[in-house]
Design goal:
The structure holds two protein chains of two kinds. Chain A is an alpha/beta fold. Chain A has helices at residues 3-6, 9-17, 35-38, 41-55, 70-81, 136-147, and strands at residues 19-22, 30-33, 62-66, 84-88, 98-104, 109-115, 124-132, 151-160, 175-180. The mean pLDDT of chain B is 95. Chain B has a single domain (2-182), classed as Rossmann fold (3-Layer(aba) Sandwich), CATH 3.40.50. The relative contact order of chain B is 0.19. Classes of the chains: A alpha/beta, B alpha/beta. Chain A: Pathway: Purine metabolism; AMP biosynthesis via salvage pathway; AMP from adenine: step 1/1.
Chain lengths: 182, 189
């Protein structure tokens, strides 16, 4: 499901603020750059507000953000809805005891980590990242949360690349996005 | 300068913020008592108070840019930027930003590292705040200041949640004031 189906009037400005950078990080990839969205205070605020309006009052106790761009959107949402914020990080960044979840990349694998004790059984969690492509990272994030007994309520991203079918990798968990890019 | 030297002496929010920070010994290597702010982020009130203290200080200073240092500066900077109506600019490790960048290198204990900013993100004459979770030697913050000054911005202040006590009083970085909420915690009881 995505906000653009309802065509909230704030969406079109958000979409125009996202910059596409061709051939980054390698040839053939049209990179969706959200840093230009962050340069427009109204558009950035509207982005956060759209998520907050959806999740406030829904009993979400954890917002988990994926390093590093999930750290830009996740904390403002967490603060506004009264939830704790949990960073999900690349290996060896978190200082305390962690659990790790490996996931597959186009070539090779990568790993996402979460602090032990940050999330408790019964916590209701929202996972936030700037973009969903293949869904591999989001899937790893959900597994981390479920392994410690949290319930993942939804995944939320600013941008979806629907042609990569990441939505299908979320084990039936709902996905909420603001903007699609084909 | 520390918050308690500048109007917030005895403010109970500062004690709660300090107590919410976890010390992890010998990370990333032996001898380092790592100040872990992730436990602060788990305490909604303390996290909100952290942001509110910075917002109260900066909202009337005509700041148009909040520049956050990757990655923990990203956890505090955007909320401050949103509340004061400023744009947020991420300062990142090399090769993460997709567009044209300028780079500033800085010295580590062993070797050097590099901070990058997008060309065009900040305009000449803008008033900027730099934010990170902690200031130690000041090397990273100094590089951040240089990046912003190279494009003609004026750095108004650098703000950190945690700072070593030698930052008390009027210690400056590249001539710019530092504003810090709490000192590092000891590993205790």
């Amino acid at each position: 499901m995505s906000a653009c189906k309802d065509e909230d009037p704030r969406i079109s400005n958000i979409k125009t603020r996202i910059r596409v950078v061709p051939n980054f990080p390698k040839s053939g990839i049209m990179f969706q750059d959200i840093t230009t969205l962050l340069l427009d205070p109204k558009a950035f605020k509207d982005t956060v507000d759209l998520f907050v309006e959806r999740y406030k009052g829904k009993n979400i106790s954890v917002v988990a953000g994926i390093e590093a761009r999930g750290f830009i959107f996740g904390p403002p949402i967490a603060l506004a809805i009264g939830a704790k914020f949990v960073p999900l990080r690349k290996p060896r960044k978190l200082p305390g005891e962690v659990i790790s979840e490996e996931y597959v990349l186009e070539y090779g694998t990568d790993c996402l980590e979460m602090h032990i004790g940050a999330v408790e059984p019964g916590d209701c969690a929202l996972v936030v990242d700037d973009l969903i492509a293949t869904g591999g990272t989001l899937c790893a994030a959900m597994k981390l949360l479920e392994r410690v007994g949290a319930e993942v309520v939804e995944c939320a991203c600013v941008i979806e690349l629907p042609d990569l079918k990441g939505r299908e990798r979320l084990n039936g968990k709902p996905l909420y996005i603001l903007v699609e890019s084909h | 300068m520390f918050a308690e030297e500048n109007g917030l002496r005895g403010d109970p929010r500062l004690q709660a913020i300090s107590e919410a920070i976890r010390v992890v010994p010998h990370f990333p290597k032996p001898g380092i008592m790592f100040q872990d702010i992730t436990t602060l982020l788990l305490d909604h009130k303390a996290f909100k108070d952290t942001v509110d203290i910075f917002v109260d200080r900066y909202r009337d200073m005509d700041i148009s840019v909040v520049a956050g240092v990757e990655a923990r500066g990203f956890m505090f900077g955007p909320s401050i930027a949103l509340a004061i109506g400023a744009k947020f600019v991420p300062l990142r490790k090399p090769r993460k930003l997709p567009g044209e960048v300028i780079s500033e290198s800085y010295v580590l204990e062993y070797g050097t590292d590099c901070l990058e900013m997008h060309v065009g993100a900040v305009q000449p004459g803008e008033r900027a705040l730099v934010i990170d979770d902690l200031v130690a030697t000041g090397g990273t913050l100094s590089a951040a200041i240089r990046l912003l000054e190279r494009v003609g911005a004026e750095v108004v202040e650098c703000a950190c949640v945690i700072g070593l006590p030698e930052n008390k009083g009027e210690r400056r970085l590249n001539g710019k004031p530092l504003y810090i909420l709490v000192e590092p915690r000891e590993l205790c009881c």
